[in-house]
Write a structure and sequence with these properties.
This protein has about 700 residues and is an alpha/beta fold. Helices cover about 50% and strands about 10% of the residues. It has 29 helices and 19 strands.
Length: about 700
């Protein structure tokens, strides 16, 4: 049963959501049909004087059935409108019927769930701080399509409404009441009584404010200069933030700007047209696939090997108390795990623990963490240079300097204390896991756990299977990732693994462009315009040219890899110009104290900068080169999951979010067109654009990664 329905002796109908076949109440196709039918029944039944819409479950309605929405990809707009419009129209019939309707919001109401509430003439919410109310569609590349932009703007004013809709922000019932789109707050067990009391108190037709004569938009009037200035400023803000790559924010602004200036039904039509355009488009569809389905599947550990008990170590060791090691200790302590944070001496290990304390102190000061949580978590961390204190650890994560000999030595010393049967993980981002595992008598218990900096904020965890890593070890590493509140993707061993290898291609391409005379400002601007958070030269400055040069020399030594076109640029910057990047005081940028960074004035003299280049071509190359490297990883068996590749690219190195990730980017661009571009660039720029066999075969057979 999806909707329980009954009418009491006072003629009050109660429509209660109860989707027993789902984990939570969602607006599925069947639920839509049932809701529309019940709404029409309420309107037609003369004995029904009012209706309460509520839920018998813990939540009200958690949102739309996104599986249903993904079936609309690339659909005919007219046909999609026919499919999607009946619920919008039914809600409008309900509020125009004159019968009082109350949303008795017992818990979380998101997206379509909140839109149902907004269409009711009164909203009463249970005062539950953990419940969330919001319209999060923008985070999935959509906008509310059943009247959300129009009703919320008319209820609380344009500025407040857009603050919620553009951000997808979720608020508690108390906050919603303060904002004005929840009328009353009551205790949970008083919810239905309060709803019935309100309906019984109504005398005569009950209409929404916008359907009453003399309605005035809250806040600034629709045609006021103040609101006009607001939209101009907000439009510029959105354009700067999105670079016009994500159409949803501008569609939301347009829906509200135009919608509040016309009668309500015309506003609904404007909103709906914008909604359909977004729904059938690639940006929203790719975003839903990656940011909702992909993320949820990764978080649920859907690929965890079967047959192994869940692993929750009571005690772990973290080797190395630097930025990465202290970050790992931080998240482990918050998971309630005892941590031995080990470094070469007392001062170094204590400095790592103090770094964790400083982070906690800052979060407490900002109200993000309670004092008790901070104190309890910090008490779980023991800082020491003494390997003997690792005794009893069930897992150890090594995060020391990227030197194979150093890692081998510390691995042996650790296993002498803990025994070789524990899970041993290395946080290396470059060195082959299989080669590091040679230091252990149990290479099957060895795995790569590549965290991202800053560890406390970055959600991704890249797990790297060595040649002998066992399924049990992988399962346990995934369990640790979940305990740490990370999203673990799984890749196979290989130089650079997946994430480091792909993001390096972005920096390398920028460095090569610079060496061939493409102006630095053009490279950087095209990088940002492609949807990347920073340009490739900025990223090189942040990592450090000296470190990048060292890594490339190590790769030449370890794998016989010939130096790429970026090598000479790095060598010239780090050794010739002595400009290593931000940490060295300057690189491609100068970093004046207390002022914004500026491009180094000497960059044009050092590398030219007069070459004419097509900005569109530059922008495409910067995205293509990353996606091409990802395709090579599939061809070489480094990764085999398009989902993990997309999630890993968006959350690991912030690949252009509007694309849905590197693999969604290739699919949306079209494999045939993608291969043709790479073939052309191979002729113009060299072998780094050579297409792997797998990709060419897929293009020739009209296949895609996401079937």
């Amino acid at each position: 049963m999806m909707l329980e329905y009954n009418v009491d002796t006072n003629g009050i109908a109660t429509l209660s959501w109860n989707m027993t076949d789902r984990a939570v109440n969602v607006m599925s196709p069947d639920a839509r049909i049932a809701l529309i039918s019940r709404i029409d029944e309420v309107i037609a039944d003369e004995d029904v004087r009012g209706v309460i819409i509520t839920s018998v479950r813990n939540e009200f309605i958690a949102g739309a059935d996104l599986t249903f929405l993904t079936s609309m990809r690339g659909g005919d707009p007219a046909e999609v409108m026919k499919t999607m419009s009946p619920m919008r129209d039914a809600l409008r019939r309900l509020e125009k019927s004159g019968k009082p309707s109350v949303a008795a919001i017992n818990g979380t109401a998101l997206g379509a769930g909140l839109e149902i509430c907004l269409a009711c003439t009164h909203r009463i919410a249970a005062d539950r701080p953990e419940a969330q109310l919001g319209l999060p569609e923008a985070t999935l590349g959509l906008l509310p399509g059943a009247g959300g932009t129009q009703r919320l703007s008319r209820l609380i004013g344009v500025e407040k409404a857009l603050d919620l809709i553009l951000s997808g922000k979720r608020v508690s019932p108390a906050e919603a009441h303060k904002l004005g789109f929840v009328n009353d707050l009551v205790e949970r067990d008083e919810l239905l009584t309060a709803a019935r009391t309100w309906i019984l108190a109504q005398d005569g037709p009950c209409l929404q404010p916008w359907d009453q004569r003399g309605f005035v938009l809250p806040g600034h009037a629709a045609d006021s200069m103040a609101l006009h200035r607001y939209f101009v400023a907000k439009g510029a803000e959105v354009e700067k933030a999105t670079k016009n790559l994500s159409p949803a924010p501008q569609a939301i602004l347009s829906s509200v700007f135009e919608g509040v200036r016309v009668p309500f039904d015309a506003g609904l039509a404007i909103e709906f047209t914008r909604f359909i355009g977004l729904l059938i488009g690639e940006v929203a569809q790719n975003t839903i696939r990656t940011m909702f389905f992909g993320v949820n599947e990764v978080r649920k550990l859907s690929t965890r090997p079967d047959g192994f008990d869940r692993f929750k170590p009571a005690k772990i060791g973290v080797l190395g108390a630097g930025l990465m090691g202290s970050g790992i200790a931080e998240i482990a302590s918050l998971a309630g795990i005892e941590v031995v944070l080990l470094d070469r001496d007392e001062a170094s290990s204590t400095a790592g623990r103090n770094r964790v304390k400083a982070t906690f102190d800052k979060q407490v000061a900002r109200g993000w963490m309670s004092e008790k949580v901070a104190v309890d978590a910090l008490s779980m961390i023991t800082a020491t240079p003494d390997f003997a204190k690792l005794a009893g650890a069930e897992a150890v994560i090594e995060a020391v300097f990227e030197d194979k000999a150093v890692k081998a030595d510390i691995t042996r010393k650790t296993l002498e204390v803990t025994g070789a049967d524990i899970l041993f993980a290395s946080n290396t981002s470059k060195i082959l896991i299989s080669s590091l595992a040679e230091s252990s008598p149990r290479p099957d218990r060895f795995i790569g756990m590549h965290f991202f900096s800053p560890v406390g904020r970055m959600p991704l965890l890249e797990l790297i299977r060595g040649k002998e890593t066992s399924e049990e070890t992988l399962a346990q590493a995934m369990d640790i990732g979940k305990l740490f509140k990370k999203m673990p993707i799984v890749v196979n061993d290989g130089p650079g693994f997946f994430t480091s290898r792909c993001v390096s291609s972005y920096m390398n391409e920028g460095l090569i462009m610079l060496s061939t005379g493409v102006p630095a400002a053009l490279i950087e601007n095209c990088g940002r315009l492609s949807g990347m958070p920073v340009g490739p030269l900025t990223l090189a400055d942040e990592i450090g040219m000296d470190l990048m040069l060292q890594v490339r020399r190590q790769e030449q030594q370890d794998y016989g890899k010939a130096p790429g076109g970026e090598f000479e640029t790095l060598k010239e910057m780090a050794e010739g110009k002595k400009r290593t990047g931000r940490k060295g005081g300057g690189g491609f940028y100068d970093y004046p104290t207390g002022d914004a960074k500026t491009l180094w004035a000497g960059v044009a003299e050092a590398f030219g900068g007069a070459t004419k280049a097509d900005p569109e071509d530059i922008t495409k190359r910067l995205l293509h080169v990353q996606a091409l490297e990802a395709a090579r990883c599939f061809d070489e068996g480094i990764i085999d999951s398009p989902r993990d590749a997309d999630v890993g690219s968006v959350f690991g190195w912030s690949f252009a979010k509007h694309t849905g990730g590197v693999i969604s980017y290739i699919d949306s661009y079209g494999l045939e067109a993608f291969v043709a571009d790479c073939d052309r660039w191979k002729q113009e720029h060299g072998e780094r654009f050579a297409v792997p066999i797998l990709l060419r075969e897929m293009a020739e057979t009209n296949k895609s990664f996401h079937a």
